[in-house]
Amino acid sequence: MKLENAFTMDTSSIKYGQGVTREIGYDMEEQGCRRVMVVTDRNLGKSDPIAVTLEALRGRGIDAVLFDQASVEPTDVSFKEAIAFAVKGKFDGYVAVGGGSSMDTCKAANLYATHPADFMIYVNPPVGKGTPVPGPLKPMMAIPTTAGTGSETTGVTIFDYLEMGAKTGIASRALRPIRGIIDPDNTRTLPKMVAACTGLDQLTHALEALTALPYNRRPAPDHPRLRPAYQGANPISHVWASQAIEMISKNLVRVVEHPGDDAARGEVMLAATYAGIGFGNGGVHLAHGMSYPVSGMVRDYVPEGYPSGHPIVPHGMAVCLNAPAVFRFTAQADPGIHLYCARLMGRDVSRAKPEAAGEILADAIVDLMRKVGMPNGLKAVGFGPQDVDKLVEGTLPQHRVTKLSPRPAGPEELRQLFLNSMTLW
Ligand SMILES: [Zn+2]
Asked: In terms of Cα–Cα distance, which of 285, 266, 104, 129 is closest to 186?
């Protein structure tokens, strides 16, 4: 087997600064856009970031049309509604305002309105056909309102495929927004639990990007076009992910305890973008792969202070509940990189033994989870050992991410990882 010997760094242009949302009219004008679809979800339709965005676009004479029906947990059905709106509207540009779901919905609307095709054509295999996107999309810019998903820098969009009850997505460099507008003003009113979950999601993105299977241990693609967006750990993703881990570890508790701390909030937002560049190129692995069935199989857990008020295991929570067990498991593949992660999180590892690497990193993660109010393991969000078979079954189709685990994880290993995630302290 021929191994990969190349890696790329693909990212969006980034504009960072307090109040920069007001410049979105200029930004889109510069791209030659005259009629723009603004995508957000129902909770944000009347929010300040939307009002500012619409005003800024219209202030430059751009015809801005609001679509505020993006689903907070997008599905193929909710994507199709946005696509129909986009096709009908004949837009020449797109702006997403919100969390990952608004950005993901916007990417899908842009894709299918620009390159119409049967819905399953571009969807990741094995669920869809995974046909490469034939060309560039219309200019899209993303304005995140949670320091959360890093979706503004990635070419990935995730949704629930309802017929199969599976979480899947579309991954293509063409989907990447051309610019991310990172404005700390837009996260000022974020509820504590949302800030905690999205911050931990970012931390896990960065930890997984650093510890993923290295790019040069993946098989080489048959054609450059088939090189995946998630390429495995590489020297570029390493830089961005490292920086993100340090910034989040230093600032997340402050953001959760003092939402008015502009400096800390700005740091976590910027770190989210750094982590997005890290994992958008390096990839994620088991903690993410295992999180999808955890979120998908929620029964009655309602997190405190979450705006929806209905049962949900938020993405960032589902991801970090599995993370300690995952890193205890993957540390054997490369104890050095796991110790390095623990050091970035503020642990003194100068005398640490390699065989303790997994435990030290897991302990640093658990410590941060407790400080920001995470539940104590999968049991605390309603799962028990009787659910493990189904959780494993739901993880196995996620091989786009799980195959980047630095240690192969089959059904037996996954079973054990879920069991070890039931209670964390
Ligand atoms: Zn994530």
From this structure: 266
> How far away, in angstroms, is 149 Cα from ligand 1 center?
6
Specify whether the CB–CB gap between 198 and 316 falls below 8 A: yes
Which residues are close to ligand 1, an ion, with C-beta < 5 A?
Answer: 201
What is the 352 CA–ligand 1 centroid distance (Å)?
Answer: 29
- Per-residue pLDDT tens for 200-256? 999 999 999 999 999 999 999 998 878 888 899 999 999 999 999 999 999 999 999
Prediction pTM value:
0.89
pLDDT digits (tens, 9 = 90+) for 355-395: 999 999 999 999 999 999 999 999 999 999 999 999 999 99
Give the tokens for residue 178.
């051309």
Residue 83 CB partners (closer than 8 Å, separation 6+): 108, 109, 112, 113
The length of the chain, given as a count of residues = 425
* Ligand 1 center–CA 153 separation, angstroms: 13
Compute the distance from residue 201 Cα to the ligand 1 centre, in Å. 5
pLDDT at residue number 148: 61
Q: How far apart are CA 162 and CA 338, in angstroms?
A: 37
Q: How far is the CA of 271 from the centre of ligand 1 (A)?
A: 14
Q: How many CA atoms lie within 13 A of 379 on its CB side?
A: 9
Percent pLDDT > 70 in the chain is 99
Ligand 1: distance of its center to the CA of 400 in Å? Answer: 14
On average, the pLDDT of the chain sits at 94
Burial of residue 66 (number of CB atoms within 10 Å: 0-12, 13-18, 19+): middle
Cα–Cα distance for residue pair 85/111, rounded to 1 Å: 13
DSSP 275-335: HHHHHHHH---HHHHHHHHHHHT--S---TT-TT-S----HHHHHHHHHHHHHHHHGGG-H
